Amino acid sequence: STAVKRGLAGDGVEAAAVAVMTTLNRDAAEAALSAGATAVTDVTGYGLLGHLHELCEASGVAAEVSASAVAAIDGVLELLASAEPPIAGGTRRNREWLEGWVEFARDVPEDRRWLLCDAMTSGGLLVAVAPDVEFEAGVRIGALVEGPAGRISVGA
Description:
By secondary structure, the protein is an alpha/beta fold. The protein has 7 helices and 6 strands; from the N terminus they run αααβαβααβαβββ. The chain has a single domain, classed as Alpha-Beta Complex (Phosphoribosyl-aminoimidazole Synthetase, Chain A, domain 2). Helices cover 38% and strands 15% of the residues. Helix 4 runs parallel beside helix 6. The two termini are 25 Å apart.
C-alpha cells in the first residue's frame, strides 16, 4: 500500500493488493483447523518474519524459511528492487527489530528481505502443521526446527 500511496504502483498492483487485503481468512483458518494446525497467526504489522519470530519464541523453537517460497503480488518485487523502493517506516522498524533474530543467507536478495519484513495490512495466515501433513490451503515456506527460541534462518 505504500507504493500505491506514493503513486508508484500501477493499477494492476493496486487492484491485486486490494483483493488480497479484503479476502477474509475464514476459509484458510477452517482448513488449518482441519489439518491439525498447532499454531496459527494472521500476518499483519510485524510482517511475516516478525510473526514467525513471536510464534517460535512462544513455542521454544527456531525456524528455517525459504524466501523464494513466499508468494508476492505481481509487481511488488520489482517495486522493492527499484532504485528508490517504497518501504514503509513500519517495515524498516520490523527489519531493524529482527536483526538479532533473523539470519539471511547471502544469496537472499534485498527485495525478498524487505518483503519478509513488510508491515502488512492483511498478509493472510501463518500456519504451523506437522511436517507429514498435507496442507492444500497453503504453501510450505519452511520448517520449525530445534534451536534458540525465536531464531530464524532465511535461505534463498
